[in-house]
Amino acid sequence: MSDYVLSFEKPILELEQKLEELKGFSEDQDMDFESEISKIEHKIEQTKLKIYSDMTPWQKVQMARHPKRPYTRDYIDLVCEDYFELHGDRLYRDDRAIIGGTATFRGRKVMVIGTQKGRDTRSNLECNFGCPYPEGYRKALRLMKLANKFGIPILSFIDTPGAYPGLESEERHVAEAIAVNLREAFTFTVPFISVVIGEGGSGGALGIGVSNRILMLEHSYYSVISPEGCAAILWKDRAYADKAAENLRMCADDLMPLGICDEKISEPLGGAHQNPEECAKNLGDALEKHLADIEGLSPEQRVQQRYDKFRNIGVFSEAEVG
Q1: CA 237 to CA 271: how far, in whole Å?
Q2: Can you give the pLDDT at residue 315?
Q3: Strand stretches in 91-167, DSSP E
Q4: How far is residue 226's CA from residue 222's CA, in Å, rounded to a whole number?
Q5: Nearest Cα to 197, choosing from 108, 91, 271, 102?
Q6: CA-to-CA distance for 80 and 23, rounded, in angstroms?
Q7: What is the DSSP letter of 131?
Q8: Strand pairing category for 108-115 and 98-105
């Protein structure tokens, strides 16, 4: 397993440690324990299947935040070729929490944009822990407009707890930057697909996510608020985050029946970090399928389809029970 273990994965770790100890003892004592080793290996596989096939929403949130999980740049390198990064919003600075540029995806020219996290303290500070400033959204808008001008499909990768809410961000009008992105995205005539690859938090996700199709990896979430934030508001205690996650209906299985998520993309057993190449292939296949569908629409139909999708989110009906 990874050297970073989530709490619900500890039974697997304990079995793997027992397996290593038994193998070591077998070698040291020159004794045959093949039968016992096979039993433990089988037990490990059964435990993995039981744990990973029946994860709670809160466990999926924890998996979405796993520090070994592939990030936007990893997926760009795995599913695209000829990536050429474009920098800056032409107004203030280059925000490293959002990256983007031109690339080739399975023979198509595309514009890829995504929120980016870091692997260590230095890179996390550089990327502001995946929380974009206003200039990040203005950079994204510049790239989306460029793609629309030249008729290039847009692919966005979402993995952020939310836009940065600090003083500097408010001073430079982060709410206005996101709002402008929402408004402008509804006018783009090119195919636009978003993939939630980890965290899909609040307006920070929507700023690059007003698209024709929203895809989600199996262990990701898409929500108006984090479970901890919701718990702090409703129960006055962040310890109820697991209860909040369940009630927010933030995972792909809950969002697909509501028409918010268009497809759940399978991950390798144990999460995307266990086999990034396999996960990237699944992601690439889903992108290719949906991109072909959207390319079959006229520019006017793409705009209308995107508008209808988001207008229908949150629509409900009331009925008297008696």
Answers
A1: 29
A2: 75
A3: 98-105, 108-115, 154-160
A4: 9
A5: 271
A6: 41
A7: -
A8: antiparallel
Identify the CA nearest to 305 among candidates 222, 186, 218: 186
pLDDT of 157 above 70: yes
* Residue 152 CB coordination number (10 Å): 19
Please give the angle made by the CA atoms of 47, 254 and 273, to the nearest 5 degrees.
45
End-to-end CA distance of the chain: 54
Choose among 246, 292, 277: nearest CA to 77.
277
Task: Kindly state the helix (H) or strand (E) to which residue 183 belongs, with its residue range.
Answer: helix 174-185
Helices 34-52 & 10-29 angle (0-180, nearest 10)? 170
At the top level of CATH, which class does the domain 61-311 belong to? alpha beta
Amino acid identity, residue 217?
Answer: L
For 81-105, write each residue's pLDDT tens digit: 999 999 999 999 999 999 999 999 9
**Do the bridges between strand 192-201 and strand 98-105 make them parallel or antiparallel, or are there none, so unpaired?**
unpaired
Residue 1's pLDDT band (cuts 50, 70, 90): low
Average pLDDT over the chain, rounded to whole?
93
Q: Give yes or no for residue 313 having a pLDDT over 80.
A: yes
Pull the structure tokens for residue 175. Answer: 């709410």
pLDDT digits (tens, 9 = 90+) for 257-272: 999 999 999 999 999 9
Is pLDDT of 5 > 80? yes
Asked if pLDDT for residue 27 goes beyond 90, the answer is no
Q: Are 61 and 238 in contact (CB under 8 A)?
A: no
Q: pTM here?
A: 0.91
How far is it, in rounded angstroms, from Cα 232 to Cα 295? 43
What residue type is 283 in one-letter code? L
The region, left, alpha or beta by phi > 0 then psi within -120 to 50, assigned to residue 95 is: beta
pLDDT band of residue 209 (cuts 50, 70, 90) is very high
Which two structure tokens, joined as six digits, stand for 191? 């195919």
